[in-house]
Amino acid sequence: MLSQLPTTTGIQIAVCIGLTALVGLATWLTIRRAAHDGSKKDVFLAGGGLSWVFVAGAITLTNLSTDQLVGMNGNQMALLAWWEICGFVGLLILAFVFVPIYYRNNCTTVTELLEKRYGGRSIRTLISALFLFGNIFIYLPAVLYSGGTFMQALFGENVPVLMFAAVLAVIAAAYTILGGLRAVAVMDTYSGIGILGLALLIVFLALAAVDWDIVSGVPAERLTMIGGPDSPIPFHTLFTGMIFIQIFYWSTNQNITQRAMAAPNVREAQKGVLAAAAIRILIVPPIVVIPGIVAYKLFGDVGDVAYGMLIAEVLPPWLSGAFAAMVAAAVITTFSAVLNSSVALYSVDFHEQFVGEVKDHWKLAAAISVLLTITSILLVTVYIDAASADPTEFSIINLLQQLNGLLSMPILSAFVAGLMFRNVAAPAAIGGVIWGVSLYGAYTFQLQPAGYIAMHYIDFMVVTLVSSVIAALVVNRVVLGNRAELNRWWQRAKSA
């Protein structure tokens, strides 16, 4: 089905390459005069010089990639818009709660905050390791897989997905190696203008193709925003695990928060986060659900290939080169952003602690970027094999969201316990995290498949989070002999 995408010509390929090169040139012209000192702030926080425009662009494009466009539209239902609508709330929490905390503690990584709250390095090391595990084994290869699959559909099945993934990875790594977060953020912003613009055009063309009627002929469950018990997002989960997923992703996830920490001050960072929130609520929901619904009306239930089939139907052939450039930019921006965050976590949280002082973060970042890029390319084969085994049942976005719980709620429990309570030791927080990972892992790979627990994974994330915090407090009291107390700011908030 992917082969039904527009057949590209030499001119269209040239347009794709030309637009990709144009973004690179614009990025270079913007950052070429920036001074560099090789410090971690220079490499990983753009020297603290990102304006709100680039903060907003970096946050938006770090999140938005082909796994969003392909995966969410592949569900072919309006319900998936809740991920983006609730993301708006998550960004507000980042702007008004967490950004001031990160700036007050002068953080380069979110894990630095944990070390300061608990007074122990061990929890910082563990959480950083979990972030790295998720980035290396889940996010980086997933982005390359979804992008490589789509590029294969555009340029022909004679070229393997792995080859496209490798090319995209190398280009993305070049931004990270040569320009650090500054280059990544600027590229994100320039690319975002084209990506969002063309994605909105596709929405317009899709609606025009069905005479602006996406209701007739489409089952009610595909159009409703109130999900049933068996849907990807049952309605009640919006009030259980969904909000905690958003808090984790937008407020405690290094891949996102690093962009917010790269502004000159709190006010500039908040402006950027709020601008990203506006984009999240106004632009992103329609581009990730409407094409999928229209594809259902035109082609039926076709899964992750829905977006590609719709493009073949509605996009004029002369625009396919620009569309290819959009796909490439979406992959490059997300991969480079996650890669830069991963290198920051390793350099600041591991190398400086266990290997030695880093005199030039540019050199270390380059070496680690190359290593992680090669690893990510090799891991793309895992996703290729999973999709080949059952193409109709494999949904990359649902897979990512479910696997995300393996790390997200245990990590969030460390932040909750550290921010809500005083006198909780780092080993106690570690106990809570280990409990959470074990519990959610048992649920995902054993208890739910065997039918012992029928609870939706979003609901079970709440169970994981709450029980992890309780486990940390129990270890703190019973094993370590410490009595936890509510922080004063939390007590004031509770009594207000």
What does this structure look like?
It contains 20 helices and two strands. It is mostly helical and 496 residues long. It has two domains: 2-392, Sodium/glucose cotransporter, CATH 1.20.1730.10; 395-489, no CATH class. Strands 1-2 form a two-stranded antiparallel sheet. The longest helix is centred in the middle third of the chain and has 49 residues, at 161-209.
Name some characteristics of this structure:
496 residues; mainly alpha; Sodium/glucose cotransporter; two-stranded antiparallel ribbon; 20 helices; 1% strand; globular; disordered N terminus
* CATH architecture grouping of the largest domain: Up-down Bundle
The residue-averaged pLDDT reads 86
Task: Note the overall shape.
Answer: globular
Report the biggest beta sheet as strand number plus sense, adding barrel if it closes. 2 strands, antiparallel
Structural class comes to: mainly alpha
Summarize the topology:
Blueprint: H1 10-31, H2 40-44, H3 52-63, H4 66-75, H5 81-104, H6 110-118, H7 121-155, H8 161-209, H9 220-223, H10 241-252, H11 254-260, H12 266-282, H13 284-299, H14 306-314, H15 320-355, H16 361-389, H17 396-420, E1 421-422, H18 426-447, H19 457-479, E2 485-486, H20 488-495
Antiparallel strand pairs: 1-2
Helix pairs in contact: 1-8, 1-15, 3-8, 3-11, 3-12, 3-15, 4-7, 4-13, 5-10, 5-12, 5-13, 6-7, 7-8, 7-15, 7-16, 7-17, 7-18, 8-13, 8-14, 8-15, 8-16, 10-17, 10-19, 13-14, 15-16, 17-18, 17-19, 18-19
